[in-house]
Amino acid sequence: MESNNWEWWWGAWKDRIRCGSCRALMDLNDDCPVCATNYRNISPTEIVTEGKTVLVPQAFAGALDWSPYAMLQLMHRDWVRPLGRDNGLSLPKENRPSERVLVILLFWTYFETLMGWFYETATSELPRPVASDLLSRYASIGARLDRLHRILFGNRYGDDLDDLGYSSVRTHLENVQQQRNAFVHGMPEAVGDELVEATVNLLPKFHESWIESFNLRCTRRG
Ligand SMILES: [Zn+2]
Asked: What distance in angstroms lies between residue 17's CA and the mean position of ligand 1's atoms?
């Protein structure tokens, strides 16, 4: 299964860097989709050390922070783990979530973490007290995707996904949020195998949509 490969989970972030000019998330091998800068032919930097000139190639930090990277690894590990070993679980069969429920719990935390980065970046050019006030006033993911997004951009986050052609991602995220909330509030069986599989199948598209939405709202446009 293609989704067993780490590439399925990581592919969108491979070779992706943050554009130094406009902050877009771009592929190192392409032009920046927002400001068209390209970093392919940057010559090495000359550094003089102990009287000798040394050429140091340009290095780029990857786009994704360490915590969401670790979450992706954990989701992938849980996805490929052999099933049928949770016999010790003392939950009645009818109230049991998917054996891979951790994928969904991690995915939601991953999504919230990405959106934290999104709104930190989107407010980074506002005066600091204004940005901090907005981020603490609209601290929950629900308030951010709806109210905060409308304050900043006159649209909800879901509307951006629709406008970018990712309605399937928008409806899936709404579904995950709903089922994950039901899981937390007394209905652990709400997260079933179907939801886990749909989430994993949609992951590359989710990444694509997230990166496009970030580039739409969080970049400096000259
Ligand atoms: Zn750029």
From this structure: 10
Say how many Å lie between the CA of residue 1 and the centre of ligand 1: 35
Instruction: Supply the Cα-derived Rg of the chain in whole angstroms.
Output: 20
Residue 55 lies in a domain: no
Distance 31 CA to ligand 1 centre (A): 8
Q: Domain limits at 156?
A: 64-217
Ligand 1 center to 81 CA (angstroms): 39
Q: How far is the CA of 7 from the centre of ligand 1 (A)?
A: 25
Ligand 1 mean position, distance from CA 21 (Å): 5
Distance 218 CA to ligand 1 centre (A): 11
CB neighbour list of residue 38: distance below 8 Å, 6 or more residues apart: 30, 31, 32
**144 inside domain:** yes
DSSP code at position 25: E
Model pLDDT for residues 9-46, shown as the tens digit of each residue: 999 999 999 998 999 999 999 999 999 999 887 777 77
Q: How many domains does the chain have?
A: 1
Residue 33 lies in a domain: no
Inside any domain, residue 165: yes
Report residue 40 as tokens: 């392919």
Rounded distance between C-alpha atoms, residue 106 and residue 209, angstroms = 19
Per-residue pLDDT reduced to its tens digit, 119-177: 999 999 999 999 999 999 999 999 999 999 999 999 999 999 999 999 999 999 999 99
